[in-house]
């Protein structure tokens, strides 16, 4: 047990600390993939029934995002933002969820962003069943349980009642477009799949072939879908766990002086919503500035960018590097003020050390994430549970050993005390016995007795 604990102590990573002086800008970008084919997913555990590829409509979106990143972070136009990046051979790292639409987006985005490179930038990914970085939202049984509970809440049932007409019009549109000749209004918790079917069908059609009233239905459906999805991954239901690993990765990349200047995560709209919730921005935050999240879905080809800028670019009064958060909505960059701690008001930018401390203190990591999500199926969560049990056993063994040692010590002290008391008693009696013996002594041949 002591060996096991020693190994854990050696393996524990040192606390991350912002560098005293950040001299270069960095950008950590989280993107939503480009347009894809139709997708169905379970409304409770959020797992999907297929892995649809990108569609042809994805390429213009990805090209627009590449141009937005180039204008903001590459010379010569980057100078206006104070966020010029060194994107040399080792200045870029790309990661993706292990799905066709995100892997394809990452490859196309990097190809557009760096068209003259002789070698492509590698894209790293992990197996879907083990991806708690970009796809933690469908591996959290506790979140699934809260979703099921929310579907029966007063808030949700009221929205289900008032949205019945919209869901009926979506069913009519699906029949008109011959996507589903038998389409009917579905329950609100299953509405995402119907919205996605309509959205994909309209975007894949010739614009002139889509009736104007159907386009209007799509706008209504998008607003209703955004209402549901933003709350699914908001603070009151999700709580921040699904974005914690990613935001910790963002913080680590932000303070990694020797790491790449540009870090790209090719992911999904729930990934982006989870990251926003983890940093303190969500539709259920109570801030009116966040209401936009419940009005329209984060579109395909959109992106979040965590920028790290040196003091000279952070503002005249800045004493250290700062982090600011921007959102690319497909047409322009928007600044999102963020809290630098749970108790502070939102700012246009946070000091880098305050941002890192906020992330480290506020969000669960490793075993804490497993406990928060009630996940005991992932190998890492089973290992964490085993280590916790082992640690408890080691602590119990140590406590028992300490108790035995104390008992032994007390026994030794008691035995020693008994010896001392016995010796003292014998010493106290010895003189009297000596005098009694002497009084009876005689001296042979002298006829004398001792007095």
From TrEMBL:
Keywords noted in UniProt: Membrane, Transmembrane, Transmembrane helix
CDD domains assigned: HP (cd07040)
SUPFAM superfamilies associated with the record: Phosphoglycerate mutase-like
Gene3D superfamilies the UniProt entry points to: Phosphoglycerate mutase-like
Coiled coil: none
Ranges for region Disordered: 1-55
Name the UniProt record assigns to this protein: 2,3-bisphosphoglycerate 3-phosphatase
Biased composition (Basic and acidic residues): 1-12, 37-50
Listed transmembrane segments: 402-425
């Amino acid at each position: 047990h002591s060996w096991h604990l020693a190994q854990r102590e050696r393996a524990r990573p040192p606390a991350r600390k912002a560098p005293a002086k950040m001299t270069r800008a960095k950008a950590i970008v989280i993107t939503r993939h480009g347009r894809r084919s139709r997708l169905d997913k379970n409304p409770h555990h959020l797992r999907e029934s297929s892995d649809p590829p990108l569609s042809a409509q994805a390429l213009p979106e990805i090209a627009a995002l590449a141009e937005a990143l180039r204008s903001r972070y590459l010379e010569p136009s980057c100078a206006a933002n104070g966020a010029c990046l060194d994107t040399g051979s080792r200045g870029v790292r790309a990661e993706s969820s292990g799905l066709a639409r995100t892997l394809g987006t990452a490859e196309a985005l990097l190809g557009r962003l760096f068209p003259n490179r002789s070698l492509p930038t590698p894209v790293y990914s992990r197996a879907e069943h083990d991806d708690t970085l970009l796809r933690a939202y469908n591996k959290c049984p506790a979140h699934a349980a809260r979703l099921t509970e929310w579907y029966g809440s007063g808030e949700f049932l009221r929205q289900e009642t008032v949205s019945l007409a919209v869901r009926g019009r979506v069913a009519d549109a699906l029949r008109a477009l011959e996507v589903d000749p038998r389409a009917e209004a579905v329950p609100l918790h299953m509405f995402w799949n119907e919205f996605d079917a309509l959205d994909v069908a309209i975007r894949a059609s010739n614009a002139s072939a889509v009736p104007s009233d159907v386009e209007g239905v799509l706008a209504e459906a998008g607003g209703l879908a955004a209402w549901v999805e933003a709350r699914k991954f908001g603070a009151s239901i999700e709580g921040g766990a699904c974005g914690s690993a990613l935001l910790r990765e963002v913080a680590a990349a932000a303070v990694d002086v020797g790491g790449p200047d540009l870090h790209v995560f090719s992911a999904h709209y729930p990934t982006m919503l989870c990251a926003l919730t983890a940093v303190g921005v969500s539709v259920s935050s109570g801030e009116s500035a966040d209401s936009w999240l419940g009005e329209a879905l984060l579109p395909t080809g959109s992106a979040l960018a965590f920028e790290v800028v040196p003091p000279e670019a952070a503002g005249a009064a800045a004493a250290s590097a700062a982090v600011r958060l921007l959102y690319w909505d497909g047409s322009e960059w928007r600044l999102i003020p963020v809290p630098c701690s749970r108790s502070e008001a939102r700012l246009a930018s946070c000091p880098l050390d305050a941002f890192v401390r906020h992330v480290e203190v506020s969000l669960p990591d490793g075993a804490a994430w497993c406990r928060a999500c009630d996940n005991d199926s992932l190998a890492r969560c089973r290992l964490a549970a085993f280590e916790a049990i082992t640690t408890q056993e080691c602590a119990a063994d140590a406590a028992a050993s300490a108790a035995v040692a104390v008992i032994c010590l007390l026994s030794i002290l008691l035995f020693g005390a008994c010896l001392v008391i016995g010796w003292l008693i014998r010493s106290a009696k010895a003189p009297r016995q000596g005098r009694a013996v002497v009084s009876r002594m005689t001296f042979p041949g002298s006829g004398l007795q001792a007095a």
